[in-house]
Amino acid sequence: MTSLENARGVQDIGTPTALLADRSVAVVHEWFSAAGGSENVFLAIADLLPHARRYVLWAEPDVPAAELGLRESWLARTALRRSKALALPVMPLAWRTLANESFDVVVSSSHAFAHTVRLGPPAHTRHLSYVHSPARYIWSPTVDGRGSNPLLGVPRRLLRTVDLRLSRHVHAYAANSLEVRDRIRRYWKRDAVVIHPPVDVDHFATAAGPEQSRDYLLGVGRWIPYKRFDLIIEIAEAAGLPLVIAGSGPEEARLRRAAARVSVPVTFEVRPTRERLRELYQGALALLFPVHEDFGIIPVEAQAAGTPVIGLRSGGLLETVVDGETGFLVPSARPEEHAAAVRRVSEISATRVREHARSFGRDRFAARMNEWVADECR
């Protein structure tokens, strides 16, 4: 379940944007982890522009940067790469001193400050920014608990000012969801088109083997606090069903302790391959996703496998799940309400769930990105 594995599946995402074939192009992203949805989007964008230079702040140690053609900033040679919270105030400077080169077109993949990068004068360089979210650490810390780090309390207002001032040169924005488009309007006072991220629905729709019994609940994602895996465990206990938790992250030890205290079996699948993840989706009764997410690729993957989603009625799930048809959206975080929705999954048609997921396929993303880039760079 890594970006590197997914990257090898996006090479056929679409034809390059022919309009830019004779122009110098750079694509940039924040830090590059081996297990993130935003990294998959960045690689999909880069595959549409194969002649583009690829820049990142730094790549995590388990990422083969050279193989992926990633050029790292000077932050990669400092100790700051080990702490995103400490590196955050320095990121705008890193982007402004990334390289001395000038490009005709820059496409940024931004969830912090990548959209502030300057790789040429605005009169010459066309800058398009695909936004996963305005930096939640500074703009909406209540959405992501990591933004409540006391180290960020003092500089938050300053960083907001810097973020606005250093991004005036961006010519056009695309948002990964209606939720993020609304934040761009609210925080940056700019408009954006909505282009949903690419999901490899074909892979997850392909049968992994004989039809399975669908007798367990599933939670998938990074094991970090705001993903609420502790709540997922509580929901499984309230529903009285076994649970499988797939992913990895710093919360593993705490989650294992929580799992040991409940009365239902909880199995941990650490860093499953894409093939194993497909098996897990296809064998699950439902995916539990009780979290406010900007978009949420995981719920779409689950639906591609015919698996309904039980999630929070907010954020990206309002766009990716049809309440009552491809899953159930619950208005609160109370485990009993989610468990009640689990008991209704027999009302859901797996065929309808799979059909809905196809509207988020990679070909749709490629077509929308090509259209957006062409419109903005004519």
UniProtKB/TrEMBL annotation:
Record-annotated Glycosyltransferase subfamily 4-like N-terminal domain positions: 36-202
Domain Glycosyl transferase family stretches: 212-352
A Pfam cross-reference name: Glyco_transf_4
Protein origin, superkingdom: Bacteria
Keyword check for Transferase: yes
Regions that span the bilayer: none
Keywords linked to the UniProt accession: Glycosyltransferase, Transferase
Gene Ontology process terms (BP): carbohydrate derivative biosynthetic process
Protein name (Swiss-Prot/TrEMBL): Glycosyltransferase
Species of provenance: Micromonospora terminaliae
